[in-house]
Design a protein that fits this description.
- This protein has 405 residues and is an alpha+beta fold.
- Helix content is 62%, strand content 10%.
- It has helices spanning 2-23, 25-30, 56-72, 76-91, 98-112, 119-128, 131-144, 159-162, 166-180, 184-218, 228-240, 248-256, 258-280, 331-346, 353-364, 368-373, 375-383, 387-395, and strands spanning 31-35, 41-46, 150-152, 286-290, 295-300, 303-312, 320-325.
Length: 405
């Protein structure tokens, strides 16, 4: 009998070890923990980063997106229905406001105006003035001084703050565009591309950091091949990377409390998410499963959806954003595609700059932060063996610089 129990114990231990190895396949596939010769953890890096930066992938994607949308518009009755549904989503969960209502009308007008954009001609005119070429070269030179694969550098409390220089490249590129282009729509197009490309290249870092946060929360340090104090310092580095170049005070705060800076920030976030789900449980038909600190599966209005506990639906809503809809798998991705096309289309409308700015802020509040938080959702799906779901969430980023195999 004793021998039988011993065999069973060994089998159970082996199964548990295999389960943990399987759960960490995504972590091991995407990240490397670099150590010095003395064993000290130097950095955490992404394994998949395109080191040959080019603006071309984004240009190709945005041109294709516009042309594809124009083709969809040929089915007028279906497209009007889809646009009505999109506008209804923009209008939901907010008190009626004349300015917001006007801004939503502007968004619709921007999308309906897409067929009037001379796509190839507009991009060619911007390119002919050398605006994008100069931006690409300047940004490539800035990236050459960085290692874009690094997502955490635990032994330097100002590592990312000192390297936060690319925003200057964007500022210079926008100024150059205004000097070289004499058409407002072309200036707007160039500006849109410059800002989007810069943000998308850097977004892959934040997306992967959030993926790593899932593993740091749900696995013991030793299972990850780390020490407890190393986990704490990795957390500090992740949060240090999010300090604005203009926030010297916050940088000093991080440096002065480096051992606890990340832990304090992360668990403040965890408590906030816990409070949100407690207070909003009654808003759902049922709460099915808590995935991790940031995401929960619920049934809402009869549909099985994943809710984001960090980010709201938009800037005027107190409700949690929807990260994925199992009942309508393409809904979130399609909604975000229309948001992005609407934002691009604003630049081709004859509207005052202050209105354009208000509408842009409103549109971006629906998806910019939300999609970055979804890195931790990818971590959850990969660690539970749901690779196809992980790919579906990653595809919602619509980021040509995000390498996701």
């Amino acid at each position: 009998m004793t021998r039988t129990w011993t065999v069973l114990a060994v089998m159970l231990f082996s199964l548990a070890s295999f389960a943990n190895e399987s759960a960490l396949e995504g972590l091991n596939k995407r990240f490397v923990f670099k150590r010095a010769a003395d064993g000290r953890l130097e950095s955490v890096k992404m394994k998949f980063v395109n080191k040959n930066f080019s603006i071309a992938p984004y240009i190709a994607q945005v041109k294709e997106d516009i042309k594809t949308e124009i083709l969809r518009m040929s089915n007028k009755s279906f497209y009007q229905y889809e646009l009505d549904e999109f506008v209804e989503e923009l209008e939901s969960d907010q008190v009626y406001d004349k300015e917001i209502s006007r801004n939503i009308g502007v968004v619709r007008a921007a999308i309906e105006n897409l067929p009037n954009i001379k796509v190839d001609e507009s991009f060619s005119q911007v390119a002919s003035e050398g605006v994008l070429q100069k931006f690409e070269l300047d940004l490539k030179n800035a990236f050459a001084m960085l290692d874009l694969s690094i997502i955490a550098y635990p032994n330097d409390s100002r590592f990312f703050y000192r390297k936060n220089v690319t925003y200057q490249v964007v500022k210079q590129a926008l100024d150059f565009a205004r000097r070289r282009l004499d058409s407002v729509p072309l200036i707007n197009l160039a500006s849109f591309i410059i800002v989007q490309v810069h943000d998308m290249v850097l977004e892959q870092r934040t997306f992967h950091q959030n993926m790593l946060l899932h593993y740091l929360q749900n696995f013991k340090a030793q299972e990850l091949g780390l020490k407890k104090e190393e986990v704490d310092l990795v957390l500090s580095s992740i949060y240090e990377s999010r300090i604005s170049a203009l926030s010297l005070g916050e940088s000093n705060k991080a440096a002065n409390n480096w051992d606890r800076y990340g832990v304090n920030n992360f668990f403040t976030l965890v408590r906030s998410c816990n409070t949100k789900i407690r207070r909003t449980t009654q808003a759902y038909d049922s709460v099915n499963e808590r995935y991790n600190f940031a995401f929960v599966e619920v049934v809402e209005n009869g549909e099985r959806v994943v809710k984001n506990l960090i980010d709201g639906k938009h800037m005027f809503s107190g409700r949690a954003a929807t990260a994925y809809n199992y009942s309508r798998p393409n809904k979130v991705k399609r909604f975000r595609a229309l948001l992005n096309l609407g934002e691009l289309g604003l630049g081709f409308l004859p509207i005052p700059g202050w209105i354009k700015g208000n509408v842009e802020n409103f549109l971006e509040s629906f998806y910019v932060r939300q999609r970055l938080s979804e890195g931790s959702l990818v971590g959850y799906f990969e660690s539970t063996g749901k690779d196809e779901m992980a790919k579906a969430i990653a595809s919602q980023m619509s980021n040509p610089y995000l390498i996701f195999n």
